[in-house]
Amino acid sequence: QVQLVESGGGLVQSGGSLRLSCAASGTIFTINAMGWGRQAPGKQRELVARISSGGAANYTDSVKGRFTISFDNAKNTVSLQMNSLKPEDTAVYYCNMAIKESPYDYWGQGTQVTVSS
Questions:
Q1: Dihedral sign, CA of 61, 19, 70, 111?
Q2: pLDDT at 27 over 90
Q3: pLDDT digit string (tens) for 36-75?
Q4: Which residues, listed in sequence order, are joined to residue 94 by a DSSP beta bridge?
Q5: Could you please report the per-residue DSSP string of 53-116?
Q6: What is d(CA 117, CA 100) in angstroms, rounded to the nearest whole number?
Q7: 10 secondary structure, DSSP code
Q8: CA–CA separation, 116 vs 26, rounded Å?
Q9: For the residues 27-36, what does the mean pLDDT come to?
Q10: Alpha-carbon gap, residue 26 to 88, rounded angstroms
Q11: Whole-angstrom Cα distance, residue 74 to residue 63?
Q12: Distance CA 107, CA 4 (A)
């Protein structure tokens, strides 16, 4: 059984920073990529950042230059450093993982990020 556990959400003022972390555990697996998605009230979930096991990172346009994703292969941990946060970044953030052994992505339980204006 695969488990993703997120931490690091909270309340921050506009322009502030937060760092999210996610640790993957469970049955031995080979990670292809890890990432972060978010879902704001009334909106669909979107993948905002993703990084391959080889270190190639991609970001959705709205967070480019502000968010940085990193992956610790040895610890199966992915982090998202979020700077210059805006009220429109307010959402529940979900950890995401793709593994070689499954055609389906895994998602964590989510952590709330609230940015006040």
A1: negative
A2: no
A3: 999 999 999 999 999 999 999 999 999 999 999 999 989 9
A4: 37
A5: TT--EEE-GGGTTTEEEEEETTTTEEEEEE-S--GGG-EEEEEEEEETT-SS-EE---EEEEEE
A6: 41
A7: E
A8: 36
A9: 88
A10: 34
A11: 27
A12: 7
